[in-house]
């Protein structure tokens, strides 16, 4: 059995995965990524995994989410940035109940209890998330309600597991597994992608769930335990190596610290999840010796992936093209290593596809618009120069005529 496991990484991670999956789909003969036996999704990877399990190809998801203007039901980036007004309201209502005991503790203590100690309980009034991802769930519900798709794990032809973390216990839950397959797929995606602090926990059956990456990065073991003998994994987030980047680009190394707190936090998060994932990969080799786990991820010198905001969606075309081309490079570099592994599972690398220098994800019109735009700007500049020259010539000619009349 073949399987696919997709990690998270916010909108950037989902965009990267679409580009990488298209590259794999093109380059591998004998593989249909929509016809694997098992799919595992974590965080934003759950969004893509749910699509594949429903028969949506990476190409079709590229049309829906990247070239979204041409889609019948386009994915609007604003869905990711809807303020969690309901959560704000719930927390505001709690403030009066918290203020009374805080004042009582402070004044009854005669000053022995500090101000911040007494009023620290007001932190409970802070919202548990800034944005509301309910819109994403609603969009997915519409998407999966179309003919030949389903929002029900039990009606899928393929096994799908979407991993979230129960916030009150820290335990991982694989929605789609027995006992957890009655949850709508869209709701499970919403829970798996609820990054703490950014989105409020998602309530399912009286329990609250957040991002599945809190416990593991890929949860590849879920697919391996289901019997996958070949598991293709995509992880969009890796730590950045500034020295490696400088060496390959023949320039002076720039420290991550120059990017300030966002860069430091990003590097810390990436390092933690990546080291954890590497440990997991080693463990999988021992626990599942008869299975092949193949990982695809960016290079550690990938400046583009590191310095782009994880939650950015506006530059999705460029980022998806970047992921597509980097994955093609990775396949060319590793083809000898991968040929034997994939061959054991009836998959062959198409050298002609990888050698084709003209392959791109940029829509023909979009790529042409950029070239046309550059040519148009050049033409306008030349026209402006010509008009300026003509204006100068006419002014000089008019001056000579006036001079002759005066003379």
Low-confidence stretches: 365-385, 401-407
Query: Helix coverage percent of residues?
Result: 40-55%
Count of separate DSSP helical elements: 14
Oligomer: single chain
What is the structural class?
Answer: alpha/beta
Order of helices and strands: EHEEHHHHHEEHEEHEHHEHHEHH
Amount of beta strand: 5-15%
> What coarse outline follows from CA principal-axis ratios?
globular
Q: What gap, in angstroms, lies between the N and C termini?
A: 99 Å
Tally of strands: 10
Largest sheet: 8 strands, mixed
What integer is the average pLDDT? 84
C-alpha Rg (nearest Å):
27 Å
Name the features:
about 400 residues, alpha/beta, two-stranded antiparallel ribbon, 14 helices, about 50% helix, globular
What can you see in these coordinates?
There is one protein chain. By secondary structure, the chain is an alpha/beta fold. The chain is 51% helix and 11% strand. Strands 1, 3, 4, 5, 6, 7, 8 and 9 form an eight-stranded mixed sheet that branches. It has a two-stranded antiparallel sheet with strand order 2-10. It is globular and about 80 Å long. The N and C termini lie far apart (99 Å). The C terminus is likely disordered.
Helix and strand topology:
Blueprint: E1 2-6, H1 10-27, E2 28-29, E3 38-42, H2 44-53, H3 58-66, H4 85-108, H5 115-119, H6 134-143, E4 159-166, E5 172-175, H7 185-192, E6 202-204, E7 207-211, H8 220-225, E8 230-234, H9 242-249, H10 260-287, E9 292-296, H11 303-306, H12 316-343, E10 348-349, H13 351-355, H14 364-406
Parallel strand pairs: 1-3, 1-8, 3-4, 8-9
Antiparallel strand pairs: 2-10, 4-5, 4-7, 6-7
